[in-house]
Amino acid sequence: MLNLASEIEVLARFGRALADPIRCQLLLALRAAPAYPSDLADTIGVSRTRLSNHLACLRDCGLVVAVPEGRRTRYELADPRLGHALDDLRTAVVAVAEDVTCADAEEKGCC
């Protein structure tokens, strides 16, 4: 069982991963199914270099894993519960604040 400090660090790590729209797209894409970097880059519409940096971040956060398959590497969520957590978080935020935007969040220092 995690202590409070460890729980806070885990949540902060998840928050940092979700703080970037590209990483959010990656997590949502991987929630649907494991994928190869070239396919993810095409789906999301970013360069492979940029995608690689975001995948490295998500790996470092422990949210995705790289699975070697011969000469290729497939990416998937580190745990299936992350997909459920993403679904729950997305639906909860929409239900609570469907019409709220975070346009001035940086000015307020919250993001």
TrEMBL record:
Domain HTH arsR-type span(s) in chain numbering: 4-100
InterPro entries: ArsR-like_HTH, HTH_ArsR_DNA-bd_dom, HTH_Metal-responsive_Reg, WH-like_DNA-bd_sf, WH_DNA-bd_sf
Biological processes annotated in GO: response to cadmium ion; response to lead ion
One Gene Ontology term of the molecular function aspect: DNA-binding transcription factor activity
Signal peptide: none
Superkingdom, taxonomy of origin: Bacteria
Classification via CDD domains: HTH_ARSR
Name assigned to this protein: Transcriptional regulator
Lineage, uppermost ranks: Bacteria, Bacillati, Actinomycetota, Actinomycetes, Kitasatosporales
